[in-house]
Amino acid sequence: MSLFEDTYRTIDTNYEGIFRDKGSKFIAYAFPFKSEEKLKDLVQEVKALHPKARHHCWAYRLTPDRNVFRLNDDGEPSGTAGRPILNVLLSADLTNVIVVVVRYFGGTLLGVPGLINAYKSAAQDALSHAEIKECTVNDVYGLRFDYLDMNDVMRIIKEEGLEIEKQEFDNSCYLEFEVRKMQVNQVVDRFSKIDRCLLNYIRTI
């Protein structure tokens, strides 16, 4: 992702695809995926659907800058399963997506080129049905302010179209909000002009 790019492409929900070759069946599942902590559960979910399948291979890409990825051949020859699946995600320029491909062996060996083509084709079939959505890269900020400044704070929130994630109103108030990367400097500058405001960066999503 370039310095000035603040969008990324992902999928909106789960999708399935299938590819058959010489009796072997390859079933692909594409999931929206934002956290590596969910990897085990997702793979287990697919394994529970297909307990008799020979292989459950997968690849994913994570984060808006698309720099985090992993792949797994699950017993297939190295480079014949996870890598072709990942290459489909790269070609489609998708991130925050995992694709798991299940293989039922049909009795005939496909060879390295055949396996690469099969895993790639199954993944492509799943994503060919997918609704691709473009998301903005947003920063989450925390804002602590005095109750007397509520009107000024809420005016900025409204005018800048900021999405509030969390709010606590008392004598001392606290908000967490999302702001698009491109708007950050402008929004920070506006809040800095309110004397009793304390703003801190939390994370990028």
Please outline the major beta sheet: 5 strands, antiparallel
What is the helix fraction of residues, given as a range?
A: 25-40%
* Class from secondary-structure proportions: alpha+beta
Residue runs with pLDDT of under 50 for 5 or more positions? none
CATH architecture of the largest domain: 2-Layer Sandwich
In DSSP terms (H or I, runs of 4 or more residues), the helix count works out at: 5
The name of the CATH topology of the largest domain is Ribosomal Protein S5, domain 2
Helices and strands, in order, run as: EEEHEEHEHEEHEEHE
The overall pLDDT, averaged over residues, is 94
Assembly annotation? single chain
Spatial shape: elongated
Give the amount of beta strand, in percent: 35-45%
CATH class membership of the largest domain: Alpha Beta
The rounded distance between the terminal residues' Cα atoms is: 14 Å
Can you identify the CATH superfamily of the largest domain? Impact, N-terminal domain
| Rg over C-alpha atoms, rounded to the nearest angstrom | 22 Å
What is the number of beta strands? Answer: 11
Number of domains: 2
The strand order across the widest sheet is 2-3-6-4-5
Attribute tags:
elongated; 11 strands; Ribosomal Protein S5, domain 2; five-stranded antiparallel sheet; 205 residues; Alpha-Beta Plaits; alpha+beta; 29% helix
Descriptive overview:
The protein is α+β, with helices and mostly antiparallel strands and 205 residues long. The protein has two domains: 7-134, 2-Layer Sandwich (Ribosomal Protein S5, domain 2); 138-204, Alpha-Beta Plaits. The protein is 29% helix and 38% strand. The chain has five helices and eleven strands, in the order E-E-E-H-E-E-H-E-H-E-E-H-E-E-H-E. It has helices spanning 39-49, 82-91, 111-128, 150-160, 184-192, and strands at 7-11, 15-21, 24-32, 55-62, 68-72, 97-104, 132-136, 138-146, 163-168, 172-180, 198-204. Strands 2-3-6-4-5 form a five-stranded antiparallel sheet, with helices on both faces. Strand 4 (55-62) and strand 5 (68-72) form a beta hairpin. Helix 2 (82-91) crosses helix 3. The longest helix has 18 residues, at 111-128. It is elongated. The mean pLDDT is 94.
